[in-house]
């Protein structure tokens, strides 16, 4: 049974997944990386990973092939991959805005394809990946893909390809929203007299702690908010200002704008 995993592109997300799998006990010999950029390829080779400049017949040994190139070169990469891929291999694309129909055509009609939308916290094992599989992907293929992304965090399978755009808007882009809020909290701390280093520590700690607490609870997030809000207190004063400024509706609208843009990209 073939268990080798091929990565087309050896950038940050591919490296994060490989690191996660190595941390779970997978051997370096289980991976093949196709990376045209020489410095990146040399760095991968230095880690003991098999790495090639272009896709070749060795791709036929892969049970999983992860398309991790930049979207603008994905079509060309698929043309190379499709010539060598085993018919029963599963292909996973992490390229935003590229639909399954296009991927299948570029791969020469390959049917076992999964669209994935991971996010950058995968680099520290705390990612969230949205997944959607074609009907040709059976339980075995889905299990392999699920295990792939389990190495870097949580997974959510969607019932339609369109929902991948929604995942992109919420968690794919989500770290950007959080960093935006964190930067504002950091600035507020600096204006209260904290050094830049301490302001950053305070902002990061607030988010890390609140996220861990929310993950440990099943209560609605609004209830968790109420637990730390005493009427007339400091949190109440801050949240009253945010409500008056329309912060929450602005965030909701921002998510909708991100989803709209993701749909535009998917439509070409």
UniProtKB/TrEMBL annotation:
InterPro entries: 6-PGluconate_DH-like_C_sf (IPR008927), NAD(P)-bd_dom_sf (IPR036291), P5C_Rdtase_cat_N (IPR028939), P5CR_dimer (IPR029036), Pyrroline-COOH_reductase (IPR000304). Catalyzes the reduction of 1-pyrroline-5-carboxylate (PCA) to L-proline. It is found in: Cytoplasm. Pathway: Amino-acid biosynthesis; L-proline biosynthesis; L-proline from L-glutamate 5-semialdehyde: step 1/1. Residues 4-97 form the Pyrroline-5-carboxylate reductase catalytic N-terminal domain. Residues 161-265 form the Pyrroline-5-carboxylate reductase dimerisation domain. This is Pyrroline-5-carboxylate reductase. Signal peptide: none annotated. It catalyses: L-proline + NAD(+) = (S)-1-pyrroline-5-carboxylate + NADH + 2 H(+); L-proline + NADP(+) = (S)-1-pyrroline-5-carboxylate + NADPH + 2 H(+). It comes from the Bacteria. The lineage of its organism: Bacteria, Pseudomonadati, Pseudomonadota, Betaproteobacteria, Burkholderiales.
């Amino acid at each position: 049974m073939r268990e080798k995993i091929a990565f087309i592109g050896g950038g940050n997300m591919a490296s994060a997944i490989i690191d996660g799998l190595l941390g779970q006990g997978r051997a370096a010999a289980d991976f093949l990386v196709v990376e045209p950029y020489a410095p990146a390829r040399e760095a991968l080779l230095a880690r003991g990973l098999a790495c090639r400049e272009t896709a070749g017949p060795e791709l036929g040994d892969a049970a999983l092939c992860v398309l991790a190139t930049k979207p603008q070169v994905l079509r060309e990469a698929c043309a190379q991959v499709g010539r060598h891929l085993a018919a029963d291999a599963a292909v996973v694309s992490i390229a935003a805005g590229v639909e399954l129909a296009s991927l299948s055509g570029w791969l020469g009609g390959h049917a076992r394809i999964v669209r994935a939308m991971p996010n950058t916290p995968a680099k520290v094992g705390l990612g969230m990946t949205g997944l959607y599989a074609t009907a040709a992907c059976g339980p075995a293929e889905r299990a392999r893909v699920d295990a792939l992304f389990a190495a870097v965090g949580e997974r959510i399978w969607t019932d339609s390809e369109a929902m991948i755009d929604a995942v992109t808007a919420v968690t794919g882009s989500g770290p950007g929203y959080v960093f935006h809020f964190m930067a504002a909290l950091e600035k507020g701390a600096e204006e209260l007299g904290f050094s830049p280093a301490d302001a950053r520590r305070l902002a990061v700690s607030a988010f890390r702690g609140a996220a861990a607490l929310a993950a440990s609870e099943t209560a609605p997030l609004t209830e968790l908010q109420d637990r730390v809000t005493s009427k007339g207190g400091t949190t109440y004063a801050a949240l009253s200002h945010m409500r008056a400024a329309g912060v929450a509706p602005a965030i909701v609208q921002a998510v909708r704008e991100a989803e709209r843009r993701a749909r535009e990209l998917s439509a070409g």
